Amino acid sequence: SSGVVLKDITKIFQQPDTGKDFVAVDHINLNIQDGEMVTLLGPSGCGKTTTLRMISGFEYPTSGSVFIGERDVAKVPPNKRGISMVFQSYALFPHLNIWENVAYGLKVEKLPQDEIVRRTNAVMELMQLTGMERRFPNQLSGGQQQRVALARAVVIEPSVLLFDEPLSNLDAKLRESMRDELRALQKRLGITSLYVTHDQSEAMAISDRVVIMKDGVICQQGSPTEIYEQPGSRFVANFIGKANFIDGTFRGMDGESALVEVNGHTFPIPAPGRMEGVRKDGPCCLTVRPESVLLSEEEGPLPGVISRATYYGAKVEYEVMLGDQPIIVEVYNPQLTRRFAEGDRVHMTLVDRCVRVLA
Ligand code: ADP
Ligand code: MG
Predict the structure, then answer these.
(1) What is the Å distance from ligand 1's center to 12 Cα?
(2) pLDDT tens digits for the chain (359 residues)?
């Protein structure tokens, strides 16, 4: 296994219809450690697949360099880069049986027959495909086909695995179990992996590190915890999970705490985050997750009226109007807590350690 380094890579496409240049990937720098599982997460069209294709060698950067291990791979063709790709469409050969599908990459490498047999059988067992050797792809379920695609990718012992939305074709339950399976396999094999998805919960569950892309640039990266708890922008806060934004005015610092005025009341925020672009006496917003707002009947500085209450079993989700701003509040363990109904007057308390201040 080996790390991957993207140094200032840019990809410009000429639009076939207008002939105009389009910047799909815009000066990206990314360092994937040996054995690490990194996810590129972002909306459709933000440049994830293009980034992956530049690593695999199916696309050449307009400028910048790609390193796999210590090696600048600019002049290395895809099949010599030591990478394997897994796609959403599985891309299995329909006319080959499962065993032959898995063995394919080893045959291409012209390895001795006994080694092909040994390694193919080992991977078939690893992926729990033993007994399905003689079946054809169309005789397998979607989950099994995805397992074959994965077996085919790992049998050549690549130093880097690339995944392009591999689970998008599966239904929700299967997607979750394949996701956990894939994560466990990646950990066990310790193969450096770059995983592309537009599904934020998949990214959170599977990654050591999440890299959030938008319009061809990286807007934030960090562990799933950092990304969720320390979003650096409204875009990231909204894209990962749900977030409330309460408009206020930044009144300066008091030690480590940011003082933010909302509703004529000044709140000390003990862990405000990076506060990029926030100026003294300028506008800002308090960013808080729905589960970090508490509701009570007691008087407080953030009064509101329940405008919607939705029961989900594990939680109740309320929409509370703070003036004309809707605030989403999630209350877990509804059996143990006071339930509110539409029209009820309530007071909100923000769990201050969980509040961040953004521009
Ligand atoms: P993602 O995988 O994040 O959905 P892509 O990397 O596939 O996004 O595409 C990023 C942008 O580049 C899109 O706007 C897409 O239309 C454009 N694009 C991708 N490939 C080409 C190409 N071969 N020619 C022109 N434009 C392309
Ligand atoms: Mg894509």
Answers:
(1) 10
(2) 799 999 999 999 998 888 899 999 999 999 999 999 999 999 999 999 999 999 999 999 999 999 999 899 999 999 999 999 998 877 899 999 999 999 999 999 999 999 999 999 999 998 889 999 999 999 998 889 989 999 999 999 999 999 999 998 888 888 898 899 899 989 999 999 999 999 999 999 999 999 999 999 999 999 999 999 999 999 999 999 999 999 999 999 999 999 999 989 999 999 999 899 999 999 999 999 999 999 999 888 899 999 999 999 999 999 999 999 999 999 999 999 899 999 999 999 999 999 999 99
Residues near ligand 1 with C-beta < 6 Å? 13, 22, 24, 42, 44-50
Residues 85 and 160 in one domain: yes
b/e per residue 125-150 (b: at least 16 CB within 10 A): ebbebeebbeebbeebeebbbbbbbb
CA–centroid distance, 84 to ligand 1, in Å, is 21
Residue that finishes a domain, picked among 215, 234, 253: 234
Structural domain that includes position 282: 242-358
- Residue 309 has which token pair? 């209450």
Q: Are residues 322 and 221 in the same domain?
A: no
Residue 223: which of 238, 237, 206, 244 has the closest Cα? 206
Q: Which ligand is nearest to the CA of 50?
A: 1
For residues 182 and 195, give the distance between their C-alpha atoms in angstroms, rounded to a whole number: 11
The number of the ligand nearest the C-alpha atom of 14 reads 1
For residues 107 and 28, membership in a common domain is answered with yes
Q: How far is the CA of 77 from the centre of ligand 2 (A)?
A: 21
CA of 24 relative to ligand 1 center, distance in Å: 6
Please list the residues that pair with 162 across neighbouring strands. 85, 194
